[in-house]
Amino acid sequence: MYPVRNPYAPGAGQRPPELAGRGRELDVFDVVLERIARGRPERSLMLTGLRGVGKTVLLNTLRSEAISHLWGTGKIEARPDQSLRRPIAAALHMAVRELAPRHRAPDRIDAFLGVLKAFAQRSTPPSGRGGAAPKLRDRWQPGIDVPASSGRADSGDIEIDLVELLSDAAAVATDVGTGIAVFIDEMQDVGAEDVSALCAACHELSQLGAPLIVVGAGLPHLPAVLSAAKSYSERLYRYQRIDRLDRIAADQALCAPAEREEVEYEQKALDLLYEKSGGYPYFVQAYGKATWDHAPRSPITAADVRVAAPEAEAELAVGFFGSRFERATPAEREYMRAMATLALVDGEEGGRDDMDAAVPTAEIARALGRKPASLSPARDALIKKGLIYSGERGTVAFTVPHFGRYLRTQPA
Ligand SMILES: Nc1ncnc2c1ncn2[C@@H]1O[C@H](COP(=O)(O)OP(=O)(O)OP(=O)(O)O)[C@@H](O)[C@H]1O
Ligand SMILES: [Mg+2]
Question: What is the rounded average pLDDT for all residues in the chain?
Answer without folding.
Answer: 91
